[in-house]
Design a protein that fits this description.
37% of the residues lie in helices and 17% in strands. It has ten helices and ten strands. The chain binds S-adenosylmethionine (SAM) and iron/sulfur cluster.
């Protein structure tokens, strides 16, 4: 990241504007290339007495969701994922040579779909990580899960490797909406997945939902929220669908005539937000909702 692109552009607050998709700070639009020398210098200057946070991006998925705005590649073979993993392990070792063996306080696996990794491959990556860094008792070790790609063996591998939070990509439970975004996943599948995670001792679960998708209405959103609440996820992320077909060409597969307009999107968010807060969730930031046992909730007290 150069100094130039870490500085946020000044915003005229008197003119309402659409926000960029807000999943990191600064947002993805503010990031740029990093030159090797600065990268090295930053790594070597990390204070040895402070714990670090590690993010691993696994840029592969089994199947394309038409709404997807993430950085991913669809691979119906596992070979490319295996190759990527070998390079990732090298990168961990090379990075650790520069930083030294630091204590880790946060690990996050995002994607793409980290749940695409075979259990043995996930474990071997964690083994390399523990050779290079102190990852004993990491307070926050999270992984993003596509429920369609996870099974008991994988869940057991996460639990035995120290994962203590999972984020499930749900989007919406309505079948017509699921068909229109090329992502079918049943309530039964989510029920089984939740049971397996809780059985493995991973109880901190985030549900990722989206409003503003094809064919969604206040009624269908209300049903999705009702189903969600029954599962009692400790946190819910409720994102507005970012439709950017000029950047993500595959989003052209999402019929624009199927999308709710700006007013309907706002009404969907307001309705969902009210249902969640009426059911014990606290609204945090732009799009997160947490129960009182979630640290996002308690950190605001
Ligand atoms: C990396 S994925 C999570 C893990 C997994 N790949 C999955 O989809 O289940 C991150 C989440 O970002 C959200 N997302 C992806 N594309 C989006 C878009 N165009 N607009 C809003 N949210 C989006 C979805 O909720 C998605 O599940
Ligand atoms: S599974 Fe997640 S990352 Fe992969 S295409 Fe679907 S939304 Fe995108």
């Amino acid at each position: 990241m150069t100094q130039e692109n870490t500085v946020l552009k000044s915003v005229d607050v008197t003119r309402p504007k659409r926000l960029p998709r807000y999943t990191s700070y600064p947002t993805a639009l503010e990031f740029g290339p990093i030159d090797g020398k600065s990268h090295d210098k930053w790594l070597k200057s990390l204070p040895i007495c402070e714990p670090i946070s590690l993010y691993f991006h696994i840029p592969y998925c089994d199947k394309l969701c038409w709404f997807c705005g993430c950085l991913t590649t669809i691979s119906n073979k596992y070979g490319p994922v295996e190759k990527f993993l070998e390079v990732l392990k090298q990168e961990v070792r090379q990075t650790a040579k520069k930083t030294g063996r630091l204590k880790v306080s946060h690990i996050h696996f995002g994607g793409g779909s980290p749940s695409i990794l075979d259990p043995a491959d996930f474990r071997s990556l964690i083994d390399v990580l523990s050779e290079c860094y102190d990852i004993d008792d990491v307070p926050e070790f999270a992984i993003e899960i596509d429920p369609r790609t996870v099974d008991r063996d994988k869940i057991f591998a996460y639990a035995s490797s120290g994962v203590n939070r999972v984020s499930l990509g749900i989007q919406d439970f309505n079948l017509k909406t699921q068909e229109a975004i090329n992502r079918i996943q049943t309530v039964d599948l989510i029920e089984k997945t939740m049971r397996d995670f809780i059985g493995a001792g991973i109880e901190r679960v985030i549900f990722g939902l989206i409003y503003g998708l094809p064919y969604q209405s206040i009624d269908t959103i209300a049903e999705t929220i009702l189903t969600t609440i029954k599962f009692k996820p400790s946190r819910i992320a409720l994102f507005g669908y970012a439709h950017v077909p000029h950047m993500k060409k595959h989003q052209k597969l999402v019929g624009e005539h199927e999308l709710p307009n700006q007013k309907e999107r706002q009404a969907q968010f307001n309705w969902a937000s009210k249902m969640l807060t009426d059911n014990g969730y606290r609204a945090i930031g732009l799009d997160n909702f947490a129960l009182d046992d979630d640290h996002l909730f308690t950190s605001f007290d």
